[in-house]
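Lecture 7 notes: from sequence to structure.
We start with the chain below.
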Amino acid sequence: MANDTILAMFSGGIDSTGVLHQLFTHPDFADNPVIIHHVILQNRENRAAAELQAVEQIVKYYAQTFPDREYLYTDCVFNTMGFAPLNSTRFPFDMDVCAFIAGNICVARKDIKQVAMGRTSTDLASGGENFKQRMARAQQVFQAVHSLEQEAVPEYIFPVVEMSKEEIWQMLPDPVKESSWYCRHPRYLESGIAVTCKQCQTCKEVAEFL
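Predicted structure tokens for the same chain:
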């Protein structure tokens, strides 16, 4: 609905960057203020620094390109490095963490009526039934945060769910492509620059169309 605030959970990856691009450029969202929130995920994948750099560069691009667009950028840290002594092979799924954080932001900001998440046709095709079940669970987490609230629960929306990663990539401006980050297991050079592992599932998916 026009003028209602949309919360965009933004990682700096291709999917969520596609969402941000749609929110800034598509006429359907022209009148909606946007809150862009990035969760700095500090876990054993060690991609927090690479993602944060991408987020800052991409947000700066859209802010400069669309100076009249109403938006607010915020971030928070979710740190599971303390799980190491548990010798656990698992840590919280990104989408569960984002759902929990998004729910709490919506509780704090009653003007938020929609939460925009980056899901693509590529995710649904490659992830299969397991991915769909994890999506459903994340939305249950989001709903649970609102269990004590009187107001209606904001709606999850997926602005690029009909698009593949390749289609999103082709849609993005070149400076945004250069800034986005997609690797799940980056390594860092002595200079601090992150480079892709070329081995994780996302690196392989992106390599098919780069």
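Points to note: Residues 121-145 form the longest helix (25 residues). The beta strands are 5-9, 34-42, 71-79, 112-116, 155-157, 187-188, 194-195.
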